Structure formats: C-alpha cells, structure tokens
C-alpha cells in the first residue's frame, strides 16, 4: 500500500505525519507506524478494505476515539491499516417502548447517555473517559467504570450488534429485546473481543429508568485498612452502592501535594466515595441504617447536599488518572480484579511483594488500578517481573489481570503466559474459524 490508492466512500491518510498519532492510545504502549489510515463512511469502503487486506496480506486495526488503556487500537506491526471509525455514518435512535437505543460505533458515549436521559432513561456504563470515548471502543473492550459495581459491564447492556466479518459483509447478531434464545449469543462473543474476530459497527443497547435520587458520600478514614472490609459488609447487608471508589494513602498524598485546590483539601489517611441511587436512598431511614452499618468508620462522613457538591466530589475522582499521568508520564497503570472478600489479602500480598505502586479505583467490585509511577525509569526486565508478580497475586486470589482495560498489546504476553492453556486454545480456534486470513487486529490478545 505504498502506492497511491483510494477507497469508495472513505478518506485515506498516508502522510507519515498524519499517521504518527495512530501509534498511541492512552496506554504506555507505542505501536508501529501503519501503512495508512482509512476513515470509512459506509459499507462499500469496508468491503473493499477486507478484500484488499486478504489479497495483499495486511492487517486491519480498529480505532474509535483512541482512549483505550491497553494498546488495543495501535498497530502491532507495519503491515497494518488503521480503520478509524470516527466518520462512520449513523444516528442514535431511541425506543422508549422497548427500553432500548440503537447507535453507530462512531457515536460519542456522552451523546448515547444524554439521548437516553432525555427520555428519563439510563445507560449505565461509565468508563472514566465517558465524555471523550466512542461507543464502539467501549463495546470492543467491554468497558466498565464506577457504575459496574451495581450495574455490571458493557456486555450486560447490549441486546444486539452490527459487525463486519471476514466476508466483507455487515451482519446483525441479536434483537432489540431482552429475550432471544435462538442459539448461542454470537453478538456477546464480539463484545470485549477487541476486534480480533470482526469489527463492531453499531449496537442496540438496553436501557433502564433513570435513577431519581442520588446519595453521594465522602468517607475519609483515619486507618486505611478500615476501608477494605466495607464492600463485602455492605453487600452482605443488602446495601449495593451504584459506585464505591477509593484512594489509598499514597494517591491521596499525591493529590494533596500536587493536585488542584479541591483535591488538596481532601481529608483522611485514605478516602472512599460511596454513591447510592435506590429509590429512598436520600431518606433519613436509609441513611441512618447505613450509618449504623458503617459504625465508627463513618465518624467523619460527609454527604453531598446538592448536585453541585456531588459534581465536585466526582470531578476529583474523574481527574485522578489524568493527574497521575501528567505527573508521571511514563507510569504503567494496571486494572487487576480480586473478589470483594479477598481485598485485605490482596493488599497484604502487595505489601509483601514490595512493588512500588499507588492504588485507587473501584473498590466496590474489586477492580483496582495499581499504578507503577516509576515504570519509565525501571529496568524493563525488572518491571516485567513486577507486573507478572502482580498478576499472579490477583489470580491466586480468584481474580484476573484485567477488569475493564482489556488485553490489547500491553498485557498480551502475560495473558498468554498465565491463562489456562485450554482457554488460549479455544480462543485461537475461534479466531481461525471467524478470521481465517488473520486480518482483524492481528497481534492482539492471542
């Protein structure tokens, strides 16, 4: 593809300066310079891209807004064309009667969520990049976010997907209803597959009534360990927060020393944000029962009194990732998971490993963002060993090495080394069946 060429109904970029940004996403990974970048606007462009890829032996790498955290949308080698879906046509269509919404992969997630809310409906998935990411990327990576604590991951909200497969055609898997049992749910196979089986071009999403109440609590604690048993205690007592976020002492110290003014005033040795959206969660009875359950830990609890205070609390949480990246541009951020009941064991194990790290994230569902701030200055072999130790610790406690970022390029070696060989064998068999020419996002995951 060094030659000059065109695609029907698409824009093609070949200038090296224009291609350079496509080597990166929001992870620490840097990919190769692609042969070209194609911005398709319709099916004819995709059909021709698939034909060319199979005929000329190059790979196709899908890309949305480039906000991924695992290097999934960057080329693994130079024989690749990035398929940028930002120009893909389509509109958001809402069906309140069916409690669903259809949208193209190019739709910004913020617009999907806003469209639902205009009808009093709610699409829960809320990754940290929800204001800037594209829907397609969240489908390809099975994105999570704070709301996954109560509402689950993206896949729980997908009724059907439109996908490009290796025949160059667009196929629809699923229907716009919660009940569909005519054979295995092939659409779910594509959710979270990071584009290795085919490319998701759009989806129909399940909606639920928009919560009418929010109780947002800031919970500073004098002893860091006091937070670690709370997720399990809340769940066992029937209190399921819509979000339970936390900052460990090291992250809190970074924010206080170098963060914005609102972050410098954060109290406690460590800190949690709890939010509930159940009907009646702002009532005295609900809050008094919660305070009784929390006991002495709630001594310095603060409750947001209005929407402005709630937004202020969440603004600090949402900026934590970008703040740490600005302070430590070469940091490595992992997103391991351990069961709620094993959190205390995990942090004891992390202390034994003596891996220099800071941790924040989704304590309510055990999805922890462990950040190695000095990774850029570390010896690569030592860093790789530390990451493998971290992953092994999570796996030994019944967890996994990624909760929401995916595997991509960044975790591929660890995934292959630590996964059940039967799992890898099955995934590779599926890859051969669905993508026999190996054109879809080569070099990722498996």
Strand percentage: 15-25%
Look at the structure and give the CATH class of the largest domain: Alpha Beta
At the third CATH level, what is the topology name of the largest domain?
Answer: Vanillyl-alcohol Oxidase, Chain A, domain 3
Task: Report the helical percentage.
Answer: 25-40%
Number of domains: 3
- What's the N-to-C terminus distance? 26 Å
Largest sheet: 7 strands, antiparallel
Number of strands: 18
Strand order of the largest sheet: 15-12-14-13-17-18-16
Low-confidence stretches: none
Cα Rg: 22 Å
Structural class given helices, strands, pairing? alpha+beta
Count of discrete alpha- or pi-helical segments spanning 4 or more residues: 15
The whole-number mean of residue pLDDT values reads 95
Write out the CATH superfamily name of the largest domain. FAD-linked oxidases, C-terminal domain
The CATH architecture of the largest domain comes to 3-Layer(aba) Sandwich
Throw out a few tags for this protein.
five-stranded antiparallel sheet, seven-stranded antiparallel sheet, 3 domains, alpha+beta, Uridine Diphospho-n-acetylenolpyruvylglucosamine Reductase, domain 3, Vanillyl-alcohol Oxidase, Chain A, domain 3, 18 strands, 446 residues, 15 helices, Uridine Diphospho-n-acetylenolpyruvylglucosamine Reductase, domain 2
């Amino acid at each position: 593809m060094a030659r000059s060429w065109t695609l029907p109904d698409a824009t093609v970029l070949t200038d090296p300066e224009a291609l350079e940004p496509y080597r990166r996403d929001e992870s620490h990974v840097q990919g190769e310079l692609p042969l070209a970048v194609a911005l398709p606007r319709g099916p004819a462009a995709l059909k021709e891209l698939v034909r060319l890829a199979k005929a000329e032996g190059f790979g196709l790498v899908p890309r949305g807004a480039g906000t991924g955290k695992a290097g999934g949308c960057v080329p693994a080698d130079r024989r690749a064309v990035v398929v940028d879906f930002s120009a893909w046509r389509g509109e958001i269509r809402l069906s309140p009667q069916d409690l669903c919404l259809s949208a193209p992969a190019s739709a910004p997630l913020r617009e999907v969520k806003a469209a639902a809310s205009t009808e009093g409906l709610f699409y829960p998935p809320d990754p940290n990049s929800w204001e800037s990411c594209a829907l397609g990327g969240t489908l390809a990576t099975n994105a999570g976010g704070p709301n996954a604590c109560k509402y689950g991951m993206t896949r729980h909200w997908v009724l059907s997907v439109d996908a490009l497969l290796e025949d160059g055609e667009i196929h629809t898997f699923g229907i716009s209803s919660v009940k569909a049992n005519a054979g295995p749910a092939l659409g779910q196979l594509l959710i979270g597959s990071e584009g290795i089986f085919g490319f998701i071009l759009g989806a129909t999403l399940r909606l639920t009534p928009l919560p009418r109440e929010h109780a947002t609590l800031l919970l500073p604690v004098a002893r860091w360990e006091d937070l670690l048993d709370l997720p399990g205690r809340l769940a066992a007592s029937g209190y399921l927060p819509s979000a339970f976020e936390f900052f460990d002492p090291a992250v809190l110290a970074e924010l206080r020393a170098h963060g914005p003014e609102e972050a410098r005033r954060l109290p406690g040795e460590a800190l949690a944000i709890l939010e509930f959206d159940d009907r009646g969660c702002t009532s005295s009875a609900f809050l008094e029962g919660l305070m009784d359950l929390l006991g002495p830990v709630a001594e310095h609890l603060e409750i947001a009194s209005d929407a402005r205070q709630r937004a202020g609390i969440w603004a600090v949480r949402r900026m934590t990732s970008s703040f740490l990246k600005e302070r430590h541009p070469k940091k490595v951020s992992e997103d391991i998971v351990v069961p709620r009941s094993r959190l205390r064991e995990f942090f004891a194990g992390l202390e034994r490993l003596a891996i220099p790290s800071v941790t924040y994230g989704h304590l309510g569902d055990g999805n922890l963002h462990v950040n190695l701030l000095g990774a850029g200055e570390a010896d690569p072999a030592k860093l790789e060993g530390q990451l493998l130790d971290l992953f092994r610790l999570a796996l030994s406690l019944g967890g996994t090495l990624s909760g929401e970022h995916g595997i991509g390029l960044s975790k591929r070696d660890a995934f292959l080394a630590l996964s059940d060989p039967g799992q890898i064998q099955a995934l590779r068999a599926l890859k051969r069946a669905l993508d026999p020419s190996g054109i879809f996002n080569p070099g990722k995951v498996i």
